[in-house]
Design brief:
This protein is 68% helix and 2% strand. By secondary structure, it is mainly α. Strand 1 and strand 2 form a beta hairpin. It starts with a helix and ends with a helix. It is a multi-pass membrane protein.
């Protein structure tokens, strides 16, 4: 005996195949990447600029969405739910690759970055607070690379990692959509 929702092909459970694999891989890569970012910040004291912090948002989204999508795949959730989770992962990481590309271009001087982290400092506050602020605040500029390895900055590696995660999520989406 089948339920009505199981009789409709789109709502049959997709199984644990590509949706589970893709969501687990994206979650693990995102968690490892954000752990690496925190390592660079807290242990190596390479402080993030405002654009670096914005690039972390996609990882903060990918981890819980990836976990929820993996749990949904594991429990045999309907295919549209799995496809929605994988689409969110693919789009978020692809957008993050775009932001990383923009940041890398700012670092290489291909274009100007946002004025809050690569332009001149305009508002220094009042004179009484200026000296105390200068002693405690380290300005991290978006257009100055603090660390490179094999010619790429952390923003450049973010592009590659985000593209990898987007490709994995897209693979999971396409394979899950094709399953009958």
């Amino acid at each position: 005996m089948t339920t009505q929702s199981a009789a409709i092909p789109a709502f049959r459970p997709a199984g644990t195949g590509p949706a589970l694999t893709a969501s687990v891989l994206v979650t693990l890569i995102a968690a490892a990447t954000i752990a690496g970012a925190w390592f660079f910040q807290l242990v190596l004291e390479i402080l993030p600029c405002p654009l670096c912090l914005e690039q972390r948002y996609a990882y903060y989204l990918a981890i819980p969405v990836g976990v929820l999508t993996a749990l949904a795949a594991r429990s045999g959730a309907p295919r549209p739910l799995l496809l929605a989770g994988l689409a969110i992962l693919a789009l978020a990481t692809l957008a993050n690759a775009g932001l990383g590309t923009y940041h890398s271009g700012v670092e290489w001087g291909f274009w100007k970055g946002p004025t809050d982290c690569s332009g001149p400092v305009i508002n220094l506050g009042n004179a009484a607070d200026l000296l105390s602020k200068l002693d405690t605040v380290k300005v991290v500029r978006c257009d100055e690379v603090q660390w490179r390895f094999l010619g790429l900055s952390l923003a450049g590696y973010n592009v590659l990692i985000s593209l990898l995660m987007a490709a994995i999520a897209a693979w999971g989406f396409l394979r899950t959509a094709k399953r009958a």
